[in-house]
Amino acid sequence: MPPSPRSELFAGIKAELPIALGVIPFGMIYGVLAVAAGLPPLLAQAMSAIVFAGSAQFIGVQLFAAATPAGIIWLTTFIVNLRHLLYSASLAPYLRALPPRWKWLLAYLLTDEAYVTAILHYNDPRAVSPHKHWFFLGAGLALWGFWQASTAVGIFLGAQVPSSWALDFTLALTFIGLVVPALTSWPPIAAAVTAGVVALLTPDLPYKSGLMLAAIAGIAAGLLTERRP
Amino acid sequence: MSPLSLSLTILVMGLITYSIRLSLILLLDRLDIPPLVQRGLKYVPPAVLSAIIFPELFRPQGALDVSWGNARLLAGVVATLVAWRTRNVLWTIAAGMAVFWLLSALLASH
A200 vs B54: CB contact, 8 Å cut-off? Predict the structure, then answer.
């Protein structure tokens, strides 16, 4: 049976379930930090819905706590989220034929985790379907739900989540679980290792701008190692 | 900050984030993507995710730490092996956290 919009939607939701295990603790910690930073609970929750970008929210609440001027907070948000520019470019060819309302909606749901699951699905030669945007929608909505719910739990629990549990580490582990199985040939391995090493070599650039530099170096390494006889 | 200026700051943060996410989805509609860029975009997932992962493992406290005392690095190595063998995110997270908690407990008792 060929995939229907409905089956793609549910496949997208299902694909996010294991990732939720890594994202939920992260959302909870965000909620805890936001309240500790003095953010009113309603605004802490609103930030998860309006910004919907974990690392920018983490850094944002720390800057709120330090009474940082809004201009600096916005600049930081811009630089921290600049990696989404690469996601946006990477998905653009697949979303081209969609009506504008789909593009506006899917752009709102374009987080790290939704991006990776969606792009893996788009690139999967075994999954032939004209409805892959429904998969993306399912993945994005599932993640959105987990993020809002875990933020609420974090706000509610507050400091009852001990920091010694190091629950923030689950997100890095989630990313490992997503990236390693995709390293099936030398070019993506070169891209991953180069980006990682460059990220380690550029510690002192402000506002995590080393991340973009590292990503671009990794992409270059991937291209350079392609097509070797 | 007052609740009003906080709300405004958060709203603009959201607008910035959304604009970045939407920008090239809309712009590349009208432009043809050069073949080199198209090939390069394949490497966005491994490159960006590794650039996030490596500092988490090798620099958990800010400074480079390649020692047996760095529980995150060792847990990350185990998680990488588990991810490679099982291709399963759940097992990767479970194995990584188990190793991390075990090592942290061992290091704390010494």
Answer: yes
